[in-house]
Amino acid sequence: MKITGKTRLLGIIGYPLTYTISPQIHNAALDAAGVDARYLPMVVQAHHLKEAVEGLKALDILGVNVTMPHKEATVRLLDRLDESAHAIGAVNTIAFEDRASVGHNTDALGFLASLREAGFEAEGKRSVVVGAGGAARAVVSALASIGARVSIINRTKERGDQLAAAIKDIYEKSRLEVVEFGGESADRVKDAELIVNATPIGMSGSTGETPLPAELFRAGQLVYDLIYEPAETRLLREAAERGARTMGGLSMLVHQAAASFEIWTGVPAPLAVMKDAAVSALEIGS
Ligand code: NAP
């Protein structure tokens, strides 16, 4: 695509940005949708975050994604937050509108869209989320917002308690509990219809590991691993062997990107193009 005086700028801020595939996903989408904009990696270290956000606003760019380690710190640096960013306590998308910076979090939307795409209705269902970090916050908030029952299992129970308290502050009627690993957690997993791994256990580098033992899975469950590299983790392989449906993290990754794209451009996101771009970037090793 030709860069002219009218070309707008998008990007991603984080540190480091070695593994991100967002530039490939978004540039493919911009080309397919005919939007005159480019998406670039912008390496920003923590001690420069405030200046970087102010600078981006001054440059009047369309927006940026925010990734590790800045998602939580960015919350305090913006003019406004949408409901999702407020509920999750983290921002993954900034839109600059009329020289104001608005924080969004499209991870929760992306997670719900991926469940819809898989034809899974989570409303009222029993679910288990393993983990209480950034991704778990988005997933628990998404599930609470649609009235699913959620058991949070986390290695550090206090972090699980903090997550449950923060979500209950926003969704007062949410049905959340925090369970320690071992003990009752096995029963919760056996009973659940949806089990989500929101820890990095099983990612490239720890592919022999799994957060939950295989014997807890059965037919009638959807086992969802947020990890997208590798596409099939040990957790997913063992759950499938026990008859459960399984799902990897690629769909959520693409749907959260699509939601960001639509916030910035107002144009429907070309989902199939974004998915193909993500798959090729992962195959090439980004
Ligand atoms: P994070 O904020 O660092 O949180 C990691 C969580 O995993 C914490 O709750 C931590 O427990 C737990 N954990 C880490 N290592 C563990 C271990 N060895 N044993 C037990 N628990 C362990 O990370 P995050 O940003 O939430 O990311 C989590 C995963 O989600 C990553 O694999 C990431 O790639 C994936 N993700 C996918 C998408 C997507 O779109 N598909 C989006 C975001 C993230 P403690 O609290 O005890 O430390």
Question: Describe it for me?
Answer:
It is globular and about 60 Å long. 47% of the residues are buried. The strands form two sheets. It has a six-stranded mixed beta sheet, sandwiched between helices. The chain has a six-stranded parallel beta sheet with strand order 9-8-7-10-11-12, with helices on both faces. The mean pLDDT is 95. 39% of the residues lie in helices and 20% in strands. α1 (22-33) links the parallel β1 (8-14) and β2. The protein has helices at residues 22-33, 49-58, 83-88, 107-117, 134-145, 157-170, 184-191, 234-241, 250-265, 271-284; strands spanning 8-14, 37-43, 63-66, 80-81, 93-97, 100-104, 126-130, 149-153, 175-179, 194-197, 222-225, 245-247. The chain is built from ten helices and twelve strands. Bound molecules: NADP nicotinamide-adenine-dinucleotide phosphate (NAP). NADP nicotinamide-adenine-dinucleotide phosphate binds next to α5 and α9.
Layout: helices, strands, pairs:
Blueprint: E1 8-14, H1 22-33, E2 37-43, H2 49-58, E3 63-66, E4 80-81, H3 83-88, E5 93-97, E6 100-104, H4 107-117, E7 126-130, H5 134-145, E8 149-153, H6 157-170, E9 175-179, H7 184-191, E10 194-197, E11 222-225, H8 234-241, E12 245-247, H9 250-265, H10 271-284
Parallel strand pairs: 1-2, 1-3, 4-6, 7-8, 7-10, 8-9, 10-11, 11-12
Antiparallel strand pairs: 3-5, 5-6
The structure holds NADP nicotinamide-adenine-dinucleotide phosphate.
The site of NADP nicotinamide-adenine-dinucleotide phosphate has 23 residues, from helix 5 and helix 9.
